[in-house]
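Comment on both lines for my students:
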Amino acid sequence: MENDLWVFGYGSLMWRPGFDYEEKQIAVVRGYHRALCVYSHVHRGTPERPGLVLGLDRGGSCKGIAFRVAESKAAETIAYLRAREQVTMVYREIVLKASTADGRIVKAVSYAVDRSHLQYAGMLELPDLERFVGQGIGVSGANPDYVRSTYEHMAGLGIADATLKALTQRFSAAL
């Protein structure tokens, strides 16, 4: 357990990690916050019609899930995460201190947005968020489905996000 890998998920990793883990805990990291700040050119959009996905952006704090991966699966998990999260290199692989719900402080690998990358959207207003989310369809599906799934899973964990809630309501009403 001492050499196990911890991974901090703040978006779709919370509900679709895609790797084997031994344990998961609600956790908080400081110095970063969750934001729809990444133009998606692959998973939820294309370069011609970008969608938006979540990024871990600097400032504030973020509640998500810390996953403990057995040491024997660490290299395989990192390889999987790099293939998933770094397709266009919009994310930087970082190690954060995460405070778990049961009181532990763990060092967890996560992926923070690179603000200098051309896919960094920054802080967008709600009408712009709606436009990009509404148009985005990529290899992983429609952007509104990603927003809704993320919001619903977060709500089920007691994690609030007013922006994801507003977008979920907007796109649910449009059906």
